[in-house]
Write a structure and sequence with these properties.
The complex is a heterodimer of chains A (424) and B (772). With 424 residues, chain A is an all-alpha fold. Chain A is built from 19 helices and no strands. In chain B, a hairpin with a 4-residue loop joins strand 3 (58-59) and strand 4. In chain B, helix 5 packs across helix 8, helix 17 runs antiparallel to helix 26 (742-771) and helix 21 crosses helix 24. The chains are: A mainly alpha (424), B alpha+beta (772).
């Protein structure tokens, strides 16, 4: 009896804390107005005229029809995205680590990440914000496929979960979907030793067919639009390397409100807060520290093995997301794909996912080995994350301009591929 | 098995692998060396390949002429130039009627991000071509060189020449060597660790120091230089050393290209020994910005290593030394000086200040009968030498506190051996710095410079408030005079919340007598550093009556005025409080062991994040950022407070010009190469004549007749210009150059011999003690 009460209490606490994460990430929504962002005008228009072909924008579209206020519908939709993201990331990490506290911290780290807050409140790319909630989910499913011997998930169940993830991402942000697809392939290649290829092949084939059928309408629409040559006018074929972040973005503790996305022009001044957050940086340092110490007992540690591979994936994506990756060299041969990528920063969500899981691994290791330091670790990571997030949100709320209806033209800070689907 | 044997064994075991690595590296280096040759292509374009935009111009085959009727912001450009990657010299041939109003630059929109690195150059009336570097990192056929006409005066463009250099290959060679060394070091570390298992404590220290270097380098990890009060001045100093060496001076006394080629003697008044490293990067061919970044990175590494070494020597405990190194290197004051104010001299001096602390601690606490005591003067001597050759004012402040220390510990000071050690310190550092002190003293005693005439500048209004010390999130504001705007947009004139907490804790510990774990010498160290930190904090505040002292008499006025900012005293407070932090850490370890140490470390890290690191972060976001590649892009005219100009010189009148002779002289074949000028001169009259040259007069210039070797009279002419007296009926070739006086040269040799002797004595001493 006592045990179940403790369990019940723990559950309530977890729900309360998850709610708090949603509340903190949604702080700019309690403002009586909307804080303006680059894509606000586009989304408000889409919300007003949303139909079934607009994917998840149907939800705010419906709210608009009920509330008769596009801005309110927009805000509620953002709130829903925050709720969903917090829940999905928590569920995903809990599946991997089977420790609610770690999953809770992981969810906070992921949802408090400056990149995500920037996507919602400064760039205002709600499609991306919606889509990136599913990246940790996808990683989890791939992890579950690999842990075949330990988990008794049927192939159909895994395929269905993966299908849901891919379809949600595809319906909300095509570029994120393409990058996720690339990451999936990279993960499979890097983790090849850990997979049962037969099982994986079956799951992937089922997922592929399912995704194709479920999203046939969208895929065919995009195909049709792309075939129309005049649609290329929406593509920006200029160089993209200058939009990549500095390595510094992964190290600095304090992020600030800013709207520019081309670092070549202004350096750090007034640039978007693009990074994974300092709490994650601390955890990554701790992880590197664990590796550096080369403790004998870690030699065959399974979870560290996963962590190392994730570190490689993160490293590759960090490199791709920065302005030191020679994107402009590739421009000669790949100008169209690069125009679709639009900004190297789009690789950051993958980095964020990998590093969030690595952060959880650090906490998990503490839990396993140094119980007395585990709580301290949780408190440090949570407090650093919370303080620095509030610092950024405070900046967003005090520096960000208020949206005034009718005053703005579309600035459009999204991939042209995602803009095209609205052109149909 | 000692370290040497372990390494030998490692080499033996990994012979094959090491051989392959060295082979690959040697191949890379060889490749780089081969690339150095044959890079001398010249691309010439006449005006027929140029076009005019945004206005009208008179175009002929040979030139494009722009006059005021052409319009404003007219662009004459040489488009679509096809050039392979490399580093080039851009020579735009022109004739301008005015100085500093027209501009030449290069752009290329067909190549990628940062593939072209160039900052352009302004045009001058008395120059006939530009001469600046351009780093092109990708083959292109879309390069455009443009001249921008401002709409004033006349500008004639006569063509463009782009000359290839081997700079890119020099950079490649340098990188190949450095990366090979780094790779080898890392590889050796890995195999050594694998075989011998480096101690956990040592690994913690290495990891920690790495993080400290990383965070102290935050602002130099972007592709910008963040502005600060003295940035332009210090960048000019790097250029001065580079140009000076390339012009044949060593050590550099007068920067030849500074102030539009007039030459500025900053080197004589302001020690720049360490800056030769930065100048070396420039000589290799790195851009101004990259050289500055690499140099500052090395300065950070040096600060971290020296402070760790010193604090370790004082506290004999690596974790304490690590914490002190973090507090010292990431302190608000250092971040402010090195990056917000760009006071490089003080940042240099901060490398050596821990050596002073360690030196004095050793001299005063070590047993005089101890065998090593005879060598105890070495850290102190290096410290003083470094400080004097980095920042004279810091040297003066440290000197002042040294006197206080010697008086407080007078009993120990006058012990025979201690006194000898101190005397050796003084003699050693004076001899080591002789090459710098002698020219400095020579100019100060025989010349009359602006710096000797600054006495009216009041400083009290620039002292910080007590409130400054108590705030956590400090920002790099622009406001330095607090009497006008209070703390609004204030400079970061504080020591940081971490050190304030340290100060409060230490006072409480002394008050409640929680000092039982300290030895006598440690407790004394704590009390003296507390006294020093309180004194220096008070001296740095606006409550200290600087203005009253200044008004007492002229000498005080000069002294106080030369201080410029009272907060300079925070240098002393900084090191003193960091030392106290080390003592508190010792107490924490003693009282609460490992757990206490962790919590204490955590508190200090959080407070550092809220102060020093926050300031670095703010500099990134708030300070104006520049991208300076070729030095012409920042001009050559900036001399900060003009302190080292001959008194009475009007700096604004110092512009490029040809020699200005009196009416009776005929001048021809004028060549100016840095500080060396030659021309043929004919005086047909019975009267003596004078030639005013484009050089600023400093003691040391000489004019001779090149054929006879006879010295001609040379003196300070109008607006402090070097003026040569030409005898009546003279005809010949005049050669003017800067020649260091013989006693400067003797001083240089004395310093060099002292340096060599010290190394020999040190090595001999080490070997002797090893044998024993």
């Amino acid at each position: 009896m006592g045990g179940s009460k403790v369990k019940e209490n723990r559950k309530i606490w977890i729900i309360f804390l998850l709610g708090s994460i949603v509340a903190i990430t949604s702080l700019p929504l309690i403002y009586p107005y909307c804080i303006n962002n680059s894509n606000m005008q586009l989304y408000l228009e889409r919300i007003m005229y949303a139909d079934l072909s607009d994917g998840f924008l149907v939800i705010p579209g419906l709210l608009y029809r009920i509330l008769d206020s596009a801005e309110s519908a927009y805000k509620i939709y953002v709130l829903l995205i925050n709720c969903m993201s917090v829940a999905i990331v928590f569920w995903s990490l809990n599946k991997i680590f089977k420790t609610p506290e770690i999953a809770l911290i992981g969810s906070a780290l992921y949802n408090f990440a400056p990149y995500r807050l920037n996507s919602i409140y400064i760039k205002g790319d709600l499609g991306e914000a919606f889509a990136i909630s599913f990246i940790p989910f996808t990683f989890t499913i791939l992890y579950l496929i690999a842990r075949e011997s330990e988990e008794k998930y049927s192939n159909i169940r895994l395929s269905l979960l993966l299908l849901v993830a891919y379809s949600c991402v595809l319906q909300s942000d095509i570029l994120t979907f393409l990058l996720l697809l690339g990451t999936t392939i990279l993960l499979l290649l890097i983790f090849w030793k850990k997979y049962s290829w037969k099982k994986m092949f079956l799951v992937l084939i089922q997922t592929f067919i399912g995704t194709l059928i479920l999203n046939f309408y969208l895929i065919s629409t995009i195909g049709k639009v792309l075939m129309q040559t005049n649609r290329t006018e929406y593509f920006d074929f200029s160089f993209i390397q200058e939009r990549g972040v500095y390595l510094l973005h992964y190290i600095i503790p304090y992020y600030k409100y800013g709207t520019d996305n081309a670092f070549s022009a202004t350096g750090f001044t007034n640039t978007q807060p693009l990074g994974v957050g300092f709490a994650i940086t601390i955890c990554v340092f701790a992880y590197v520290w664990i590796l550096f110490m080369k403790d004998e007992k870690n030699r065959n540690n399974k979870i560290l093995g996963w962590g190392n591979l994730l570190l490689i994936v993160a490293g590759i994506n960090i490199f791709l997301s920065t302005n030191i990756f020679p994107w402009d060299y590739l421009h000669k041969f790949l100008s169209k794909p690069l125009a679709v990528i639009y900004s190297p920063t789009r690789f950051i969500p993958t980095v964020l996912t990998c590093l969030t899981i690595i952060s959880c691994i650090v906490l998990y290791k503490l839990k396993e080995e140094k119980k007395e330091e585990y709580r301290l670790g949780l408190i440090i990571v949570a407090s650093v994350s919370l303080m620095l997030t509030i610092y950024l949100i405070n900046d967003i709320m005090t520096v960000g301009e208020i949206y005034a209806s009718g005053l703005y033209e579309n600035v459009l800070d999204i991939s042209p591929l995602d803009y095209l689907k609205y052109m149909n | 098995m000692n370290f040497k044997d372990k390494m030998k064994e490692l080499f033996e075991k990994n012979k094959k692998r090491i051989f392959v690595i060295i082979l690959v590296e040697a191949f890379l280096i060889l490749l780089a060396v081969v690339g150095l040759f044959g890079k001398n292509d010249v691309y010439m374009y006449d005006c027929s390949s140029a076009s005019v935009a945004f206005g009208m111009a008179q175009e002929t085959e040979d030139e494009i002429k722009l006059t005021e009727s052409s319009g404003k912001d007219v662009e004459v450009y040489f488009p679509n130039l096809e050039i392979p990657r490399g580093v080039y010299i851009v020579e735009l041939n022109y004739q301008s009627e005015l100085d500093n109003v027209h501009f030449c630059n290069v752009k290329d929109e067909t190549i990628g991000y940062k593939m072209l690195r160039v900052s352009g150059a302004v045009l001058f009336e008395e120059l006939d071509k530009t001469n600046y570097q351009m780093w092109l990192l990708q083959d292109t056929s879309g390069l455009t060189v443009s001249a921008f006409y401002s709409g004033q005066g006349e500008l004639i463009i006569r063509g463009l020449v782009i000359r290839e250099t081997n700079i890119l290959n020099r950079i490649f060679l340098f990188c190949a060597i450095v990366f090979s060394l780094l790779f080898n070091l890392i590889y050796l570390f890995i195999i050594y660790d694998k075989k011998n298992h480096i101690l956990k404590e040592n690994k913690i220290v290495i990891f920690g120091l790495g993080l400290i270097v990383l965070y102290s380098s935050l602002t130099i990890l972007s592709d910008r230089i963040y502005s600060g009060g003295d940035l332009g001045y210090h960048l000019q100093r790097f250029e001065g050393i580079t140009d000076g060496i390339l012009n044949g001076q060593f050590p550099v006394r007068i920067a030849p290209e500074w102030i539009q080629g007039y030459g500025y003697a900053s080197s004589i008044f302001y020690g720049e020994t360490l800056m030769y490293i930065g100048a070396l990067f420039r000589m290799i061919g790195f851009s101004v910005m990259t050289s500055y970044h690499m140099y500052m990175f090395l300065i950070n590494i040096a600060t971290v290593l020296v402070s760790f070494y010193c604090f370790y020597k004082v506290f004999k405990e690596k974790y304490i030394a690590l914490l002190c190194t973090m507090l010292y290197t990431l302190s608000v004051y250092r971040a402010f000086k090195a990056y917000a104010a760009c006071a490089l001299g003080e940042a240099h001096a901060m490398i050596f200040i821990p050596l002073i602390l360690y030196g004095f601690y050793r001299i005063y606490s070590e047993d005089t009968e101890c065998e090593n005591y005879s060598r105890s003067y070495i850290p102190l001597m290096i410290g003083f030498t470094g400080i004097i050759q980095s920042h004279m004012l810091t040297g003066e402040m440290v000197g002042m506190f040294t006197i206080i220390l010697c008086v407080i510990l007078w009993k120990k000071t006058f012990r025979k051996k201690t006194f000898f050690a101190l005397a050796k310190t003084v003699i050693g550092f004076v001899l080591l710095s002789f090459w710098f002190i002698v020219p400095f003293a020579d100019y100060m005693l025989t010349g009359n410079f602006v710096i000797q005439n600054v006495w009216a500048r009041q400083i009290q209004n620039m002292g910080g408030y007590i409130a400054h010390q108590l705030i956590a999130f400090t920002v790099p504001g622009k406001n330095t005079i607090y009497s006008v705007e209070g703390m609004f947009d204030s400079n970061s004139t504080n020591i940081g919340i971490a050190l304030v907490v340290v100060l409060i804790i230490w006072i409480l510990m002394l008050f409640f007598r929680k000092t039982e774990c300290f030895s006598k010498s440690e407790l004394k160290l704590g009390k003296i550093t507390l006294l020093f930190s309180v004194i220096s904090l008070v001296l740095g505040l606006s409550i200290f009556p600087w203005d009253q002292i200044q008004s007492t008499n002229h000498s005080f006025a000069v002294l106080v005025s030369s201080l410029q900012f009272p907060h300079r005293f925070f240098t002393i407070a900084n090191i003193s409080l960091v030392t106290i932090a080390g003592l508190i850490t010792k107490y924490v370890i003693n009282r609460w062991r490992e757990n206490g140490l962790r919590i204490w470390f955590l508190i200090m890290i959080i407070l550092t994040l809220m102060s020093g690191i926050y300031l670095y972060n703010e500099i990134l976001y708030n300070n104006i950022a520049y991208q300076i590649y070729n030095h012409e892009g920042m001009g050559t005219g900036y001399i900060s407070g003009e302190e080292y100009l001959p008194y009475g010189t009007d700096a604004e009148k110092l512009m490029y010009h040809d020699p200005i002779p009196t009416e009776n002289l005929l001048i021809d074949n004028y060549i100016k190469d840095g500080l060396k000028i030659s021309f043929t001169c004919e005086n047909t009259s019975e009267k003596e004549g004078e030639v005013v040259l484009q050089l600023l007069y400093y003691k040391g210039y000489k004019a001779i007749d090149k054929n006879t070797g006879k010295e001609l009279k040379l003196f300070m002419g109008e607006n402090s210009a070097v003026t040569v007296n030409i005898p009546s009926l003279y005809s010949g070739e005049v050669y003017v150059s800067f020649v260091s006086p013989w006693y400067w040269r003797v001083a240089e040799w004395i310093s060099f011999i002292t340096f060599v002797l010290l190394i020999v004595v040190y090595i001999y001493g080490r070997k002797q003690s090893e044998r024993k």
